[in-house]
Amino acid sequence: MTLTKADLIDSIQNNHDLPRLKCSQLAESLLEIIKESLENGEDVLVSGFGKFCVKNKTLRRGRNPATGEDLMLYARKVVVFKCSGILRDKINGEV
After folding, report:
1. How would you class 59 by CB atoms within 10 Å of its CB: exposed for 0-12, middle for 13-18, buried for 19 or more?
2. Do 36 and 22 share a structural domain?
3. 61 plus 89 within the same structural domain
4. What is the pLDDT of residues 38-47, one digit of tens each?
């Protein structure tokens, strides 16, 4: 199952007994702060959860898996996430 933005808003509303509109604004604000930070090249570190950062991918050769045709993959930036040790342990049932 995927956690959607609507699910996140519902969870905030249920846990904090706030109006749905306020919960929606909170979620949108948080996501906007994260997006702006990443756009500016800043890392986003959430203690106990993980770190989002922007990595540069260089120009490289690739292959279309459907046709087998060689092609060039252009340089670009991608967002990567590295989970914290605490989260990794919880996922693996070690906590």
Report:
1. exposed
2. yes
3. yes
4. 999 999 999 9
